[in-house]
């Protein structure tokens, strides 16, 4: 699935725009952004949190970031109003 999305040019900026558009159309359901840590790290942790919050995302599922290794990211999440 990820490879197909990449082949179609989907990137982080586009996904955040999809969330913004859905919220503007009235989506009330929680939106969780799910993916791998490396693209998030490349985008920038704080930038991602700021942009995701602005877009209307409710949280993250980072599939390859174990909780015991996620202290910095979890602290950033708390500072942007995301809770565990």
Query: How many beta strands in the DSSP annotation?
Result: 2
Strand content: 5-15%
Main beta sheet strand tally, sense and closure = 2 strands, parallel
Radius of gyration from the alpha-carbon trace, in angstroms? 13 Å
Mean pLDDT across all amino acids:
92
How many alpha or pi helices? 5
Estimated helix fraction? 40-55%
What is the topological layout?
Blueprint lengths: L1 H6 L4 H13 L7 E4 L1 H7 L1 H11 L3 E4 L8 H9 L5
Parallel strand pairs: 1-2
Helix pairs in contact: 2-4
Report on this structure.
It is a single chain. The protein is mostly helical. The chain has one domain (2-79). The protein is built from 5 helices and 2 strands. Strands 1-2 form a two-stranded parallel sheet. 8% of the residues are buried. The mean pLDDT is 92.
């Amino acid at each position: 699935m990820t490879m197909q999305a990449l082949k179609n040019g989907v990137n982080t900026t586009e996904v955040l725009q999809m969330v913004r558009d859905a919220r503007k159309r009235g989506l009330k359901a929680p939106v969780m952004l799910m993916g791998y840590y490396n693209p998030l790290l490349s985008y920038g942790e704080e930038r991602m949190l700021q942009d995701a919050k602005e877009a209307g995302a409710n949280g993250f599922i980072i599939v390859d970031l174990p909780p015991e290794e996620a202290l910095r990211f979890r602290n950033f999440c708390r500072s942007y109003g995301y809770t565990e």
